Amino acid sequence: MTAATVDDPAGTAVRVRDLRIRSASGTLVDGLDLDIAPGERVGLIGESGSGKSLTAYALLGLLDDELRAEGDVRLPGLAGNVLDTDERTLSRTRGRVASIVFQEPMTALNPLMRVGAQVAETLLCHGTAPSRAAAARAAVELLDQVRLPDPERAARAFPHQLSGGQRQRVVIAAALANDPALLICDEPTTALDVTVQAQVLEIVAELVRARDTALLFISHDLAVVSAVADRVAVMRGGVVVEQGPVAEVFTGPQHEYTRALLAASDLDGARPEGAAAGPSPAVAAPRPHLALDGGTGDGGTGDGDTGCAVFNPVTGTEPLIRTRGLGREYPGARRGIGRRGEPVHALRDASLDVAEGQKLGIVGESGSGKSTLLRLVAGLDRPTSGTVRVGDVDIPAAGAAREDLRRLRRDVAVVFQDPMGSLDPRMQVSRIVAEPLHGVSRAEAADRSREVLAAVGLDGDALDRYPHQFSGGQRQRISIARALVTRPRILVADEPVSALDVSVRAQVLDLVAGLADEYALTLLFISHDLGVVRHVCDSVLVMASGRIVESGATGAVYADPRHRFTADLVAATPRLRFAPSTTPEESR
Amino acid sequence: AAGPAASGSAPGEVTVALSRAPASLDYTRNAGVAIPQALLYNVYEPLVKIDSEGAVVPLLASSWTVDDARTSYTFTLREGVEFADGRPLTADDVVASFDALPDWTNAVAGQLSGIVATEAVSPQVVRVELDEPDNAFLTALAGPAGTVFAAGGTDDLATRTLGTGPYTVESYDSGVSMRMVAHEGYWGGPPPMERITLDYYTDPTAQTNALMTGGADAALGVDAPQLLPQFENSPDFTVTTGSTDAEMVLSMNNAAAPFDDVRLRRAVRHAVDSDGVREVAAEGYGIPLATMVPPTDPWYEDRPDPYPYDPERARELLAEAGDPHPAISFKVPNLPQYVRVGQTVQSYLEAAGFRVDMRILEFPAVWLGEVLTGHDYQLAVIIHSEPRDIVQFSDPDYYFGYDDPAADAVLAAARSGPPGEYAAGMRDYARMISEGAAADFLYLTQWINVVSAEVSGAPENSTSESIDLTRLARG
Amino acid sequence: MAVSLARRLGAFVLTALVASLVVFLLLSVVPGDPAQVALGVTATPEALAAQRAEMGLDRPLVAQYLSWVGGLLQGDFGVSAVTGEPIATELFTRATVTTWLVLSAMVLALAVAVPLGVLAAVRRRRADGVLLSAVSQLGIAVPAFLAGLLLITVFAVRLGWFPAGGWSRPGEGLPSLLWHLALPAVALGLVQGAVISRYVRSAVLDVMGEDFLRTARAKGLTPARALVRHGLRNAAIPVLTISGVQLGVMLVGAVVVERVFVLNGLGSMLLEKVANRDMAAVQGVVMVLVGAVLLINLVVDLLYAVIDPRLREASA
Amino acid sequence: MTAPTTPAPVRRHLGGNLVSGAVVLALVVLTALISLVWTPYDPIPVSPDERLLGPGGLHLLGTDLYGRDVLSLLMAGARITLLVGVSAVLVATLLGVPVGIWAGIRRGWVDAVLMRAVDVVLAFPALLLTIVFGAVWGASATTAAIALGIGAAPSFARVSRSGTLQVMAREYVLAARSANRGSWWIATRHVLPNISGLVIVQASVAFAIAVLAEAALSYLGFGTRPPTPSWGRMLQEGQSYLYDHPTLVLFPGLAIAVTVLGLNLLGDGLRDRFDPRSEARR
Ligand SMILES: Nc1ncnc2c1ncn2[C@@H]1O[C@H](COP(=O)(O)OP(=O)(O)OP(=O)(O)O)[C@@H](O)[C@H]1O
Ligand SMILES: Nc1ncnc2c1ncn2[C@@H]1O[C@H](COP(=O)(O)OP(=O)(O)OP(=O)(O)O)[C@@H](O)[C@H]1O
Ligand SMILES: [Mg+2]
Ligand SMILES: [Mg+2]
């Protein structure tokens, strides 16, 4: 925590002095100092909306026009202050000497360009690849490095054809392309499952080692930060409240906020009384623990209708959600006129039940079809095979009747994986949040919006602003607020807390748990964070390569993973390396 | 600012810019002045023609005699005349042509409806019998209806011409350009040019632009006088203005209220200042008229207008007639020149107390239907361009609806009376029409040519239905 | 693919048929007697009646329509009531002129509009951007005749570089054709370019707020290159749309330019035929227009899918 | 952005366009209103003695070919010009935009049928439409405006449809659907605001086109009846005097240009108003 800033400019890769970022309405970053030496890995953690992303943008001169930055920012290989350097000079630095992985991979990619070309562009525009073909080959190579399955094919895909985590890896690949001397990663692994996350972090670490790269790693995941960073800075409200070597800060946090943050990171410790403590009465029947072959378990139970395994079966009562043999296929890419490549099976043969009031977590490999499954259950997409039944509404392959869909959607609320993309850029937050409220007066809608926004930790002045004026975590909370404002019967949430700092995350999760108790909310909850899933959900579903591979009570699955993939996941879950001395030693 | 531009035409050729394009090459079927303008005299020839002074002179007929009853004309054909395909002209061709007149769908054939029989007296002599004496017969014979076609050669007149004239049509790109080449065996000797190209321009500015860039050597019958100043002071061009048969007439429906009242008709003539109209609509070009007779007609008379511009008198007449502010409808064709006339006339009439409802009607389709055929009008404006068309005031079915038995009698007497008294009779008739205020004769439009200094022989007057190019030469 | 092509074709024929009926009905309302127009000022009632019979105007409307559409289905546009010549021949020569004119004008328009619109968007806060924007706005207000006459005055009359009008004669080859085409294409293209540049500006402004442009800059592209490589394509859909529409509009909308430059294209043909009440020819022109517009928009719709893969899937 | 190549905006621009556009248009409207009660000269009567006077002297902007005062004509012409332009744009917007949005939202056969119908209207020349309308209801400024509006509607439809297609591919539409909002809501709350930029541009372009087209039509007898002055007609009448009296084209041309400019400024201003990200761009 003591002045860890290096004052010798020659020895630093990045030197920031007194950085201030202002918007029309106030100061967003207020006097930030930061140094990163070559080969040094600095973690930046802190409250959602504290100015982490803005700081990252400012380092590369990428702030929006409506924001003004002052101060002194020095980068490796750049003569002057970044804030006074012209675009042309900066553009020679960006992407080559210094690159950045953006927080929101969904909107960071050009929807009309194949992702391979978007990666190759980084090489081409700095002339680091000798030819177009070489750049294309290098791009496939990079995509392979970030563990994209079938990189040849992925290179030819358009962003919308990739899952959230796949897109995130594309953005990472582009940032790594030129082996930069400074790498800024803004929440680079929010959509990655823990195995892939571990691999990607290894690649980053490798780069840092091999090239003496300076790394600025922004994350709310303290475990990840503790694994990646040497030094950590904690931000809150636009200022760095504490910084120092990771071990020091995490074991002996000085600032009160840091202490609170570390406390909140242990979900189990912070678990509110009653929430998810035991299965709710409706699902009192024990969940059988099932797994597909290739695991260590005893296989699924047969189902009379389709003959395939039904996961998470509900016995006795009628399940609220029931899918049988559910599949979603995307036509293969067009190759010339009339020819198509192999179709993509985003989801196949998914049969599962969800009982009323059940809180089902979905974990799994990135690109394994989790979001696809959610979209089908929420009636936002049509299956190509199999059936979904939610309550008394059937969604056949041909699509549900309009009236049925209406009834379905009255009960189901969705939190989308991509908060930015799911918020209309021309709508004020007040209207976005009130969108699901039907037949409610303006005043009441405003009250309820304010209320629910407060519940997710956003204050009233958010109401009049537009989505682009928020931080990633704030947008995610807006998205959650919109889903919760109607008090739905079923909440379908796709990585709803991936961008939240741990304290806000705890707050939001408590909110959801509270609603679940109060209204018998049925929850479908996707997360790559096994801890979060265990905290919120009573049962869990594990997916890999378009299939459900395992299901069971959360504790049982974690304790005794039967499918190999599940076992890998559990093993790869990052742990906080240094536990704060104020709390008892991490149990797991 | 006309710059000297080298002519784009090859030696021995001349390019003429015209405005209205023929619908086809067949004036037996299609109406419209443009077809005879291009083809009559230049490609097709009648027995006689009207020269540039308005006089009837021999053409295919070298001479003719008239019997005492003045109903039988005997024409002697010129020797050595051949059609463009080399076939010699005989009296049988004349007979076949005149016998075919009832089959024409173009109503101009009606001008020769007085012919009751045509017979070949010998291969070179043909006799034409009329139902009654007609002093206008030879004039009509000089028009398109009098054309002598090759017997049996009229099957595809719309696309292929076959005449005895100095030129034959080589090609016609409909609405765009007509190319005529010299008729080698022309009876009058080789024509002055090897080739004449007629280019048609809907836009008058484009027409004059062509002149300035050498795209055309002459523009004939320019009807946008506002474009002339740029040529008038240029040594490279000559601007000529000549007479025509085309009178700008403010027609009144004499058969219906309110213009069945002569006081209102006179009020109109007093109210409208023709000179003002001429100034606005024709930039001051044009010849003042008191009646519907152009100066090239033998019975032209330079008399003062019986109802000169006098708005005060117009107001008095209106008051006398009982309504100082009569509402009248005014139907104007939708062509620029008419719109200008219309607006000016409207302004004058309103100043004198009329309330004018002016409507611009699509021409020809709607205007013809409503005004000319339907007689559904009170006041209208149009150019009457047929030669000697004043006689139409005696046609009770014509849209003028004019009925003056005394004038009709004078006309009948003049047409069938001795030729020596024809002109005098017509003079009386013209005066009666004017004094009866049968219409307001605003002015005679002028034939305006802009020709490059190299070009000679352009027709300076338009006295016939042809644009006579037979003497046109370049260089 | 074959199926969807067949479907498209079927829709095409069906639309053309429906359009032909609509066109026929609308035109039958138009006042004015074709026979009267053909015969002119001096026609007698008997001659008119005979002419009407010859033109087939005395038959019931249904019969007239059926015989016309019957011919059309066999590719026969009929013969002109005025000249007696086959309409198809004239349509073909007119359409050739129009196609050359309109396509070259569109190429020029896009060549002007894209840079102009992009600059106006990018530099919208600076004097030059405001000026560019104003120029394009004023360009819309320039009447085509004025553009044409000014071009003629300068380049044909003063400098003598190009002809003041007219079309190359058959057999003169491409250079002559382009030489004749240059001024009219510029006159038409400049005004269209001004129109399209407005859409380019707006579409580019819409794109400029997108995150992926920041990504592109983060990769090291200069803002200008980022815009060209990533922005333009994203802005292309509205621009493509309006270009397609304007192509359709220009087919007859170029009539003023055709007149000033003495070109005989579809626009002036339409005016002529309407004036002559040569209904068979008018219907012919309109059917050609319908066909052309359907074709243009088919291409535009296909290009949507080429440009935007998300629309590709939706259309499949 | 903070790079020095982009000097920080001197003042908040939001509204700059809006205000100047509104001021220009207000002036035009004001002129039209004043002309109802006062013009320097009576713009209707013809005076052959005062034809084609140059600007200056008693007639500030000169006189036209009829000898009428050009300034008075411009003032009085503003009325019909605004009327025709604005009503044509209204008709086109009200017809075209809903059709385009509906087609873009529903896709499938609705889209196919609507768009083919739009194609047919697009192919049907405005001139013919005006003739037909004039035949049925009588030629007047109103019929011309309606016919011009219908003629312009297809471009509104196609532009709105293409914008709609793009918006419908966005995830926030999915979010609205999952919020149980129907097509009407999506059309009005999501699609319309997001395509408003294009529609506004379309409207300002269509206005200019309508004003020029009205001139051509009325000259052919299908639009406003003379002697009612309109800017378009002044332009048309001045055309053949371009070489000798260029001001006859210049003044009405300028009037149209200034109005179009005002409209575009207003359009741009509205566009920026509706676009919360407009300040975020560089
Ligand atoms: N364009 C903008 N206009 C106004 N305020 C903005 C704008 N962009 C960001 N902000 C505000 O600036 C603050 C810092 O945002 P920033 O994106 O840096 O947060 P962050 O620390 O990255 O948070 P998170 O962890 O949620 O991503 C937030 O309160 C946000 O609301
Ligand atoms: N439109 C599409 N076209 C082709 N393939 C698609 C399309 N959308 C998704 N896919 C593919 O379907 C698979 C499943 O995608 P999905 O978004 O459901 O994954 P996910 O489990 O949510 O992954 P993540 O955790 O990374 O978000 C992925 O491999 C993806 O590439
Ligand atoms: Mg952030
Ligand atoms: Mg996903």
From TrEMBL, chain A:
SMART domains: AAA. InterPro entries: AAA+_ATPase (IPR003593), ABC_transp_ATP-bind (IPR050319), ABC_transporter-like_ATP-bd (IPR003439), ABC_transporter-like_CS (IPR017871), Oligopep_ABC_C (IPR013563), P-loop_NTPase (IPR027417). GO terms for molecular function: ATP binding. Residues 14-262, 321-570 form the ABC transporter domain. It comes from the Bacteria. Keywords: ATP-binding, Nucleotide-binding, Transport. Belongs to the ABC transporter superfamily. This is ABC transporter ATP-binding protein. It comes from Pseudonocardia nematodicida.
UniProtKB/TrEMBL annotation, chain C:
Its main location: membrane. Residues 95-304 form the ABC transmembrane type-1 domain. It is found in: Cell membrane. The keyword Membrane applies. The chain crosses the membrane at residues 100-122, 134-157, 177-200, 235-261, 281-307. It is a multi-pass membrane protein. Belongs to the binding-protein-dependent transport system permease family. PANTHER family: DIPEPTIDE TRANSPORT SYSTEM PERMEASE PROTEIN DPPB-RELATED. InterPro entries: BPD_transp_1_N, MetI-like, MetI-like_sf. Keywords: Cell membrane, Membrane, Transmembrane, Transmembrane helix, Transport. This is ABC transporter permease. It comes from the Bacteria.
Automatic annotation (TrEMBL), chain D:
Keywords: Cell membrane, Membrane, Transmembrane, Transmembrane helix, Transport. It holds the Pfam family BPD_transp_1. Coiled coil: none annotated. It is found in: Cell membrane. The chain crosses the membrane at residues 18-38, 80-105, 117-137, 143-160, 198-222, 248-267. Its main location: membrane. It is a multi-pass membrane protein. Residues 78-267 form the ABC transmembrane type-1 domain. Belongs to the binding-protein-dependent transport system permease family. This is ABC transporter permease. It comes from Pseudonocardia nematodicida.
